[in-house]
Design brief:
heterodimer; A: alpha/beta; Rossmann fold; 3 domains; 6-stranded mixed sheet; 18 helices; about 40% helix; B: about 80 residues; alpha+beta; 5-stranded antiparallel sheet
Chain lengths: ~350, ~80
């Protein structure tokens, strides 16, 4: 019912793109898009049509900084109960990952939803439960919704939420690589709508298409971008009309605005990006793990945490190299023994590349 | 992580904060519906345990129709 399949239509779109005879490089910022491209084989089909598509910083776990990882590791060692999404647990810190601390006896739980973490706090009033909140605009409203409903006071949030548009601005501002168009993330856009992308098109004259996650969605998005390039247009188009309304989800936006304030934060592989992070407003500081455990976190306040030695996740996240260009890829760094987060997360381009390269 | 799965709301709890969502194939799971305005029978996209948008049942069909129209239009242009 929700599946978007039409073989003849797909063939038609491919032949249209081919006829345009282009040499273009587009970027998407979503691991789920990358997964669709690789799983369906569309990446090579499009390459043969002259269109290369790379993954930018579209993996929330991957752009989480070494400092944020150390913050949660410190709290785990200080006997807090840590709850977070599955991928986060395996990201290596300076000396260990949450998973390794769990094996050493620390209390680390994988949750499917922030609601599970709140329930954990409700059922265990003597435990201090810290939820490491990772994710872009798709996930941030879920954290906001929970904090708006007065969760128990033994629950707190280490917010590592980030918003996508500032990272897109940074990529174009830095100008390290040529990008002919952006395929914008469908589910982030379900929340934020189309307006937040518009300044990118007007400042940098870049075509953008919000896309869904089926192969046909991505093919159509590429064709729409190619048409824009050919016509010299630079607008924000919506391919994913079945889930993305131009205004987005206003209720979710309101929840986010009530709870979070946009702050300048660093992303892995990027410098500090203005207004790119979502930190808890003062009103919610009772639930802000960074305030609540300020004393515990003081030991790492002045410390620098560099990226792992030899790891090129930063270059991968900025789209400068593909995963297999990293000397560690598939040798020293594999999903079983990851060096950087792009090899940990199911949304990381290194994991995705590794998974499908093995099947080829 | 930005994966979202469509499903149908088959029951709503008294607080209207949680719903049971049918994902097909016998899979039912509870979802938080505080970020959307929903009624029984609505289809929603669910991400990390939260419904993030209400979607129309026949939207996929409509999308295909729209694509065909766009291609025909562009083809003539």
């Amino acid at each position: 019912m929700f599946s978007l399949q039409d073989k003849h239509l797909a063939e038609e779109i491919v032949s249209r793109i081919q006829k345009e005879d282009v040499r273009l490089r587009f970027m998407h910022v979503c691991g789920t898009h990358q997964d669709t491209l690789m799983k369906s084989g569309l990446d090579s089909v499009l390459q043969s049509c002259g269109v290369t598509i790379g993954q930018g910083p579209g993996c929330p776990v991957c752009v989480t900084t070494p400092r944020e990882i150390e913050e949660i590791l410190v709290l785990a060692r200080k006997r807090k109960t840590i709850a977070t999404f599955g991928d986060m647990i395996r990201v290596p810190g300076e000396t260990a990952s949450l998973q390794q601390l769990k094996a050493d006896g620390c209390d680390v739980r994988t949750v499917y939803s922030i609601d599970d973490a709140v329930q954990l706090a409700e059922k265990n009033p003597t435990k201090e439960v810290v939820f490491m909140a990772v994710g872009f605009e798709t996930t941030a409203p879920t954290t906001a919704s929970v904090l708006l409903r007065d969760p128990p006071l033994n629950f707190s949030v280490l917010s590592c939420h980030r918003v996508i548009p500032p990272a897109l601005h940074a990529l174009l501002e830095m100008g390290e690589i040529k990008i002919d168009g952006f395929i914008e993330p469908g589910h982030v856009s379900t929340i934020i709508g189309l307006q937040p992308y518009e300044s990118l098109s007007s400042i940098y004259h870049i075509p953008q298409v919000v896309a869904g996650f089926e192969p046909l969605d991505l093919l159509m998005a590429v064709w729409m971008l190619v048409r824009q390039v050919k016509k010299g247009d630079a607008t924000v188009e919506n391919e994913y009309t079945r889930a993305v309304k131009p205004e987005g989800n206003i209720k979710a936006q309101q929840a986010m605005n009530k709870v979070f304030t946009q702050a300048d934060v660093k992303w892995r592989g990027f410098p500090v990006l203005p207004k790119s992070g979502l930190l808890l407003r003062k009103k919610y500081e009772t639930y802000d793990a960074r305030k609540k455990y300020e004393d515990e976190l003081r030991e790492i306040k002045e410390k620098e945490f560099p990226d792992p030695v030899g790891c090129l996740c930063g270059e991968v996240l900025r789209g400068l190299i593909s995963s297999r260009d990293c000397p560690l890829f598939g040798g020293q760094c594999t999903p079983d023994s990851p060096v950087g987060p792009c090899m940990v997360s199911v949304e990381g381009s290194c994991t995705i590349e590794y998974r499908y390269a093995k099947k080829k | 992580m930005c994966l979202a799965i469509p499903g149908k709301i088959v029951s709503l709890d008294a607080t209207k904060q949680f719903a049971t969502v049918d994902y097909g194939g016998g899979t039912h799971r509870q979802a938080n519906v505080t970020l959307v305005e929903v009624r029984l029978g609505d289809y929603v996209l669910v991400h990390a345990g939260f419904a993030i948008q209400v979607i129309e049942e026949n939207e996929a069909k409509e999308t295909l129709k729209l694509f065909r129209q766009m291609l025909a239009f562009q083809g003539e242009g």
